[in-house]
Backbone:
């Protein structure tokens, strides 16, 4: 059994250097039950949206973009340029099963790791402000240590992610967007026990980053998602459901890239777009015993009311994390 507590947060905060600061991100906690088979149906404390919530929101009758004609799909996802469209859905189950096996294997081996993270947030200047040499209202660059803890117990495995500044958890008082996290475990979306929360479509084959890849589309099923992403606005919290595309290496069935979009825009709250693109890569860590598969870069773009914002996360120098403890003599 795998269950996930996953919250994306969009919150208006302060004004920084003349532009409104937007904190966007996710808090992610994965729990994997060692006693359940990898393909078992998930069971967990439910946090599903209510029936009234589903009926009152636009995703109730949402049509994923992978159901649209191919030219429209490619317009939604420009990264699909060069895709050879699938003529059959027969390979879908095989691809999902093999990719799921990779998730199970990685989860069993992943240790506590830490990396360097560079975060750049850009707020482009709206067109109404005219042409100028500086195309951005605000630019902010920050550096962190990004920590992924893998806790193996008799009841299961739990993945927790933290952003650190000088050895302490980052907070909004010291860093912009401290909630933008959750990327290193995003591949668990296709863990066998999680597949029932989404619909999948085999889209075809493509060359991506010099790899031959299988391309899959996915869309969350609102009534099946136990812990939907939720956007938090002043005095209001709304559920958000996602669709996307994943590019899976045809040689070893590891995810090379993932793209996630809103299942439908939310004009009722001013959220027109929220797109996350994750690029994964092989990471060789000394003393880890084998290679891992972790994010190299994450790009988030969103349009909220009148602002368009882009945030880029780059990860490097992955290494084992070992907590240090210091024994102090007893005070007389």
Residues:
């Amino acid at each position: 059994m795998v269950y996930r507590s996953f919250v994306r947060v969009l919150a208006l905060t302060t004004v920084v250097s003349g532009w409104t600061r937007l904190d966007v991100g996710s808090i992610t906690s994965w729990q994997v039950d060692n006693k359940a088979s990898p393909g078992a149906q998930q069971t967990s404390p439910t946090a599903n949206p209510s029936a009234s919530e589903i009926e009152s929101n636009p995703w109730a009758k949402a049509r994923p973009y992978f159901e649209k004609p191919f030219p429209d799909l490619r317009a939604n996802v420009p990264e699909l340029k060069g895709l050879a469209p699938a003529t059959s859905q027969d390979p879908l189950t095989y691809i999902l099963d093999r990719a799921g096996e990779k998730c199970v294997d990685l989860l069993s081996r992943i240790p506590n790791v830490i990396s360097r993270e560079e975060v750049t947030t850009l707020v482009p200047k709206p067109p109404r402000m005219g042409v100028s040499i500086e195309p951005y209202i605000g630019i902010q660059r920050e550096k962190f240590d990004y920590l992924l803890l893998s806790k193996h117990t008799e009841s299961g495995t739990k993945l927790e992610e933290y952003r650190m500044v000088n050895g302490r958890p980052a907070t909004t008082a010291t860093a912009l967007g401290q909630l933008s996290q959750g990327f290193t475990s995003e591949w668990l979306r296709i863990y066998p026990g999680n597949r029932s929360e989404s619909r999948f479509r085999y889209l075809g084959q493509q060359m991506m980053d010099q790899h031959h890849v299988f391309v899959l589309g996915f869309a969350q099923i609102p009534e099946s998602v136990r812990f939907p992403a939720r956007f938090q606005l002043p005095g209001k919290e709304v559920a958000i459901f996602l669709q996307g595309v994943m590019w899976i290496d045809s040689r070893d069935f590891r995810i090379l890239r993932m793209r996630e979009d809103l299942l439908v825009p939310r004009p009722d709250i001013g959220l027109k777009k929220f797109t996350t693109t994750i690029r994964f890569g092989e990471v060789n860590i000394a003393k880890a015993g084998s290679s891992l598969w972790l994010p190299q870069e994450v790009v988030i773009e969103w349009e909220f009311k009148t602002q368009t914002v882009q945030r880029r996360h780059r990860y490097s120098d992955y290494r084992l994390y070992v907590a240090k403890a210091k024994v102090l003599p007893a005070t007389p």
Notes: The two ends are 50 Å apart (CA to CA). The CA atoms of residues 53 and 164 lie 36 Å apart. The chain has one domain: 13-42+83-317. Confidence is low (pLDDT under 50) at residues 1-30, 33-46, 173-179.
